[in-house]
Design goal:
single chain; four-stranded antiparallel β-sheet; alpha+beta; Alpha-Beta Plaits
Length: about 300
């Protein structure tokens, strides 16, 4: 048996706008998925993730290496990353399955290769993904990601360590979104097609905040970080990806001197998955969560990417 471990991810800023060529800033987090592969008498999948998606990843490995057949194997997936909450569960499934199966069959360990194949896997889930999610869970740390063209992507692992003075991030669960990430991406595309100039302006404003956040983290400037995250969240609200249900909670966090923003796709009809919150006082975030019926948990940003745990 071999086992690989893959992190979940969060968008510090740049979700949705990244699909249109502006940068996104992503970070791996300390919630992880473990994918194990072992020899078996038949091909089987034991996972809370959809089996057809796991098998799709297996098929992409087979196609990449031009294999006529794969040996029968048992794939077991255990995960701390809740599916459907924009924490990179599908990306972790794609990268983890590709990595584990590739190593099991070919004894190749190459995260860049895993990332390339996983991007093709992700197209099944999201239609037109940016490629940022699979890249950050493959590489870990903090990632500056820009998709210029389908064949031209800029990916930089930032040499930024979030200091203990700025390590005050939390996840607040607002409930699983009704919509998939793919559906939310389609919603933004429809808005773009109806009013391209307005949407381009919002994408540009979002890019400005992505850059401010990167500099603030590098320079450990909390005041700049908070202001940039608040302004970035405002652009996401104007894009129409933040449902009305969670707006009072976001404003409540801001009122006590913190910040709360959506992660990933967002949501319209009900919850938006997790809000990424920042505040030095954990109790204030916890109390606001209780006020709205939302649970909260601290997270650590910048964890290790896909890694081989056992041989």
């Amino acid at each position: 048996m071999i086992t690989v471990s893959v992190p979940g991810k969060i968008h510090l800023m740049g979700e949705h706008a990244v699909v249109y060529g502006t940068p996104a800033l992503l970070a791996a987090i300390n919630l992880r998925m473990r994918v194990s592969v072992e020899a078996s008498g038949k091909m089987e999948v034991i996972s809370t993730e959809p089996s057809d998606y796991v098998l799709h990843a297996v098929q992409k490995v087979k196609e990449h290496f031009k294999l006529s057949a794969l040996p029968p194997m048992k794939i077991t997936i255990q995960s701390d990353i809740p599916a459907g909450f924009h924490l990179g569960s599908s990306a972790a499934t794609a990268v983890g399955t590709v990595a584990a199966v590739t190593y099991f069959v070919k004894k190749i360990w190459n995260p860049n290769l895993f990332n390339t194949i996983a991007y093709e896997v992700e197209k099944k889930q999201h239609g037109n993904p940016s490629g940022g999610d699979n890249t950050i869970v493959a590489m870990g740390g903090m990632l500056w990601f820009r998709k210029e063209l389908e064949f031209l992507k800029s990916m930089w692992q930032l040499d930024v360590k979030i200091s203990s003075d700025l390590n005050h991030f939390f996840l607040m669960s607002t409930g699983r979104p009704v919509e998939t990430t793919g559906e939310m991406v389609s919603l933004v595309r429809q808005k773009f097609e109806k009013n391209p100039e307005q949407m381009k302006k919002l994408f540009s404003q979002n890019e400005t905040q992505v850059k401010r956040i990167a500099v603030a983290l590098k320079e450990q400037d909390e005041k700049e970080l908070l202001d940039a995250m608040i302004r970035g969240e405002q652009t996401l609200e104007k894009m129409g990806v933040v449902g009305k249900k969670v707006l009072p909670c976001i404003r409540a966090v801001e009122k006590v001197g913190g910040v709360a923003k959506i992660l990933g796709g967002g949501g319209k009809k009900n919850g938006v998955g997790f809000l990424l919150c920042y505040h030095k006082d954990r109790d204030k975030i916890k109390n606001i969560g209780k006020q709205f019926g939302y649970s909260t948990q601290p997270i650590v940003l910048g964890g290790e990417g896909v890694c081989l745990k056992e041989k």
